[in-house]
Specification:
By secondary structure, this protein is mainly beta. It is built from 1 helix and 10 strands.
């Protein structure tokens, strides 16, 4: 059974800040924005997801990564995040569409600015995932 551990939004850029609840529509989290619409956002990249296990692994390597610092919208644990898989968070159903390619805007989350540490091509088990929204709705962090 998967668990939602964090919800993050920003007006654009990183880090994204933590919130307790949000409405998610087909375009993503209401109130979230991206500066670079060519590479981020849109229906096929509506929600960016990072697994807590990946965050912990990278932190344990000594990188200054923290929740929201790499532009993820959701921090989760226990879901199948393979491409094509569907999973539910609260009322929302998501489908994993693709790996989120890292870019220099998240370099402060990594020792020596090595943002490629989160590259699916270089580290297939350590990545963020873009999801499309199958069923919109509301989500909330459990207390």
């Amino acid at each position: 059974m998967g668990e939602l551990l964090g919800i993050f939004i920003s007006d654009g850029g990183v880090p994204k800040h933590s919130i307790e609840s949000v409405k998610i529509d087909f375009e993503g989290l209401v109130g979230d924005n991206q500066h670079d619409k060519k590479h981020h956002g849109g229906v096929m990249r509506a929600v960016c997801v990072l697994e807590k296990e990946v965050l912990d692994k990278i932190q344990n390597e000594g990188h200054p990564i923290y929740p929201g610092s790499t532009g993820e919208n959701l921090l989760v644990s226990g879901f199948d995040l393979s491409i094509g898989s569907n999973f539910s968070v609260g009322e929302v159903e998501l489908e994993v569409m693709s790996a989120a390619t890292p870019c220099k805007t998240i370099s402060k989350s990594f020792t020596n600015g090595n943002f490629n540490r989160l590259s699916h091509k270089k580290h297939p088990s350590d990545t963020r995932w873009y999801c499309r929204v199958i069923k919109p709705g509301n989500i909330r962090i459990s207390s």
